[in-house]
Amino acid sequence: MLKAGIVGLPNVGKSTLFNALTRTRKAAAANFPFCTIEPNVGIVSVPDARLDALSKLTKSEKTLPAAFEFVDIAGLVRGASEGEGLGNQFLSHIREVDAVVQVVRCFEDEDIHHVSGSVDPVRDIEVIHTELILADLASLKKRAERQNKGARAGDKAAKAEIALIEKILPHLDAGRPALTLDLADEEKRILREFFLLSAKPTLFACNVREDDLADLSGDTPAAQHVAAVRKYATEHLGCEVVVISAQIESELAELPPEEAKEFLAGLGVDDSGVGQLIRAAYHLLGLRTYFTTGPKETRAWTIHEGDKAPAAAGVIHSDFERGFIAAETIAFDDLMKYGSHAKAREAGRLRIEGKEYVVADGDVLEFRFNV
DSSP alpha helices (H): ranges in 216-361? Predict the structure, then answer.
């Protein structure tokens, strides 16, 4: 199962957010640095309104959402790449995740200590990026030392690695993460073997106070902080930004769904920030969803973007992939429009797709197979 790691400086709300995401109290949350030492791991369900709609349409007895893992990682401080704070532990834990959700403090509160003494989200982002880049520089230089001998002896794989390292090093030296380097497909394949920290897909979670959540269009400190993060994300990484209030989300996690919805409405907010963050992280990991539905069960299945029909079938059972014949396919919107598979078939919206079909997010599938 793919993992998204929650990272950030100490005391930015990572552990509070993790508890809200996983609806647990696994992660200790306190007003001092390094409250989290060992990473906490939790499985989260992906909120998807399409799943409930399908379940109602086919009167399913059970509804099963897609899921993936979140990891709450210890806070990082300046100098982590040289072992400061819990630096070495932090870096090893982030190396093991597939994508990064960086929680950025965008709220002012004199009672909650900030390790740098003031709130400046862009500075905080750059502290973390600098430490990841420095760690990557050290890692690549060691790798180059190991591969130089093979490259001189004519080893093609070693030569390709050295060529890529020589391309990446100036980029990192300029303070730019490996994620932003333009590479050919073969270079990207080799890069994955380097396990670089700054090459991991990233999104930002701006943590704001309850009072700021409903309106961030004004000139409040929180609005300015969030705007600065959005500008940085667009100009430097081209990545997504989600605004959340970790404290509100931790309170919502204790409430039944209907009461949580009323609570959000009272704040003037339509959707839970946790729901938005989970969906954003799911897509950041390159994951997509298809559905199966019927009277017994409606279920969301997780696939990778670009997966073809046999691979999607294999998610259910290896026999489905091994004996794949065809996939009866309809888009979610079409099924909801016509109200049943039978009516969709009459309208010509139900298709039979073969082995080369690339499954689209939201497809409703039924597989034909023979083993």
Answer: 221-232, 246-252, 257-266, 273-284, 309-316, 318-322, 332-338, 341-346
The Cα-based distances of 273 to 121, 242, 279 in angstroms read: 19, 7, 10
The rounded average pLDDT for each run of 10 residues, N- to C-terminus, in the chain (371 residues) is 88 86 57 52 92 96 94 69 51 88 90 79 93 92 91 90 96 95 95 94 93 80 94 94 89 82 80 88 96 97 97 96 97 96 95 97 96 82
Instruction: Return the beta strands (E) in the chain as ranges.
Output: 3-7, 40-45, 62-64, 67-72, 99-105, 202-207, 241-244, 287-293, 297-304, 324-331, 351-353, 363-369
Helix (H, G, I), strand (E, B) or coil at 366: strand
In the chain, the amino acid numbered 108 is E
Residue 274 and residue 278: Cα distance in Å, rounded?
Answer: 6
